[in-house]
Write a structure and sequence with these properties.
It is a single chain. This protein is α/β, with parallel strands linked by helices. It folds into three domains: 236 residues, NAD(P)-binding Rossmann-like Domain (Rossmann fold), CATH 3.40.50.720; 55 residues, no CATH class; 151 residues, NAD(P)-binding Rossmann-like Domain (Rossmann fold, 3-Layer(aba) Sandwich). The chain has 15 helices and eleven strands. The strands form two sheets. It has a six-stranded parallel beta sheet with strand order 3-2-1-4-5-6, with helices on both faces. Strand 7, helix 10 and strand 8 form a beta-alpha-beta unit. Helix 8 runs antiparallel to helix 9. It is elongated. The structure holds NADP nicotinamide-adenine-dinucleotide phosphate. NADP nicotinamide-adenine-dinucleotide phosphate binds next to helix 2. Keywords: Membrane, NADP, Oxidoreductase, Transmembrane, Transmembrane helix.
Amino acid sequence: MELPDFVLMAASIVGFIAICKPLVGLVKWVWAMFLRPPKNLKEYGSWALVTGSTDGIGKAMAFELASKGLSLVLVGRNPSKLKAVSNEIRERHGEQVEVKSIVIDFAKFSGEEIAAFIKEGIEGIDVGVLINNVGLTYPYARFFHEVDLELMGSVMRVNIEGATWVTRSVLPGMLEKKKGAIINICSGSVLLPSYPLVTLYVAAKAYIAMLSKSINLEYQQYGIDVQCQFPLLVATKMIFIKRSSFFVPSPETFSKASIRWFGYEHGKICSRQSIMNDKCRQSGMWLILRGQESKIHRASASDDPSTMELPDLVLMAASILGFIALCKTLVRLVRWAWTMFLRPPKDLKEYGSWALVTGSTDGIGKAMAFELASKGLSLVLVGRNPCKLEAVSNEIRKRHGEGVEVKNIVIDFAKLSEEEIARMIEEGIKGMDVGVLVNNVGLAYPYPRFFHESVLPGMLKKKKGAIINIGSASVLFQSYPLFTLYAATKAFHYLWQRR
Ligand SMILES: NC(=O)c1ccc[n+]([C@@H]2O[C@H](COP(=O)([O-])OP(=O)(O)OC[C@H]3O[C@@H](n4cnc5c(N)ncnc54)[C@H](OP(=O)(O)O)[C@@H]3O)[C@@H](O)[C@H]2O)c1
């Protein structure tokens, strides 16, 4: 092997790996999304603690965990809502599931107070799963300086201090038994480069993402799985979308999917920022900014933020387009799998009982001749070397007996004129029902034109026939240096057969 061959081979290997990478990614995604069995959460411990469990995602998560047989510590600010949720869970799951409540308003208590409440509440309980779900955002988008001080304090305390102090209180028990799962409910907004007009909320969530990544590294070695999840839109009171749809799941649907991921990909989900390129991200941010700004104006005019305006529609349209693009790729993949592995081959004898193969004394042409003979087609073999032609014919006759007739035509495409080639082919196939033509010969000038006057008329007359042109993958590249002439003729061949 010389240097250029070596370089070409290296380039091919790199290209092959580049194709394999997204395929492997897709297979992994399908596995994780649809096939991978969920972890048995009871292995972490018999109790789960859920913050913000009186509504939305937290409430749905509590029901889902109870259905997996875990007992629950529900944390919320509203005692009557906590009682209602506890009763509903007990009614649904009977004695299988114990439920305990801790009343904490994360916006009102200090970190130390939160820690003391939690510590007292979980005394003697084997908490294996902690879901830091509690969250609070602004009721309307607004500029940073316009957020009133009370709301500012609440957003930081609920989102940042809530998760931090509850984790700090639950961790020692997990460390002691060397197992546990901590799931922090973050927000998809963190995956964007910036998220103006809900700045404080998204900055608090970015804190949660970093906290998750870092404690995951600290405690993985002690059997504690830390995972940060990034919901996009979920139909809860937080985002004023009450009805779920294909793009906005209900909290129940989200919780089911969320629990399937517990214990897997810990710490890793945070690294998805690279999904979109910078330009896309910047235009996305512009759209969001405009959308949120319109909400500010609306908020001052009326108190109902729930109706959809143009920028929301633009965002939704963009999501739909993205979804269509994904579907297109999937459809292509399915088509490819069908064509490559599943589609039954045509019965070539329906085209006619003879096949003509050029360049049939060696390589692909020879193999093609054998394959066609194995399908019961008789053969016209075209080649420049009479001895090699004879040898191939004899071999085919020996293998397939009388079921397959073989006829040879000796033509050197490089030496004869176009008219001579046409005449010899015409004479050679006189009276024969040639249904399949394999233009395989690979070292000549544009010979396909000559056949137009010899093989094609027969096919045209019976209105059927198959022509297979053996091209080269070289036409799929921008250029193919060092094999220029060969690649150029193959490119001609390719374009010609497409016209
Ligand atoms: N919904 C979405 O589209 C979305 C998107 C991305 C991320 N998230 C995140 O998902 C998590 C759950 O949100 P959600 O949509 O389910 O919101 P939600 O329906 O508003 O529920 C929030 C829960 O937190 C509780 N809570 C709020 N402030 C509290 C406080 N000061 N002290 C104690 N509990 C308090 C609420 O209690 P009450 O019942 O008393 O109100 C409720 O149980 C949040 O962390 C949120 O940031 C949601």
